[in-house]
Description:
The protein is mainly alpha-helical and about 170 residues long.
Amino acid sequence: xISVDWCRLMAAYNSEMNRRLYRAAEAVPDIERRADRGxxxxxxxxxxxxxLWADRLWMSRFAGKPRPxxxxxxxxxLIEDWDLLRSARAEADAGIEAWAAGLTPAWLSRPLxxxxxxxxxxTTRPAWVTVAHFFNHQTHHRGQVHCLITQRGVKTEDTDLPxxxxxPALGIG
Length: 173
């Protein structure tokens, strides 16, 4: 099972990687950020939208709140305006870090049940498994965006976990 410290570490890493990725994406002209490059969700902009949509979806499940509007099919078009997308991402990341700061081992070990739109049925998994998936999903799609950005000739910042996060600030390590 994962730990509360691991979740806090991954939440901080997620925030930092998103800041770095969005800074790099700023160097890509808007028309190129929106161009379909054959990724799962088409473009840089579309993939970043999908990632925000999925993070909001999982956070609603973790908090036991209603599902946010939209579907996976619509997720690449969640927020059309680049500046609004960037600000929504920063807001979501702050929320993820606050959520991780309040986690307990008991919450991680309990079952999590939700209605899966993908399968059309109620699904139950250990909460810690869904949290591991949540952070893994972020890394997966950020990797796609990283590739699309570097294909445009833009240099990105380092993504290595041991150097990207201030461990003492988190009280870890």
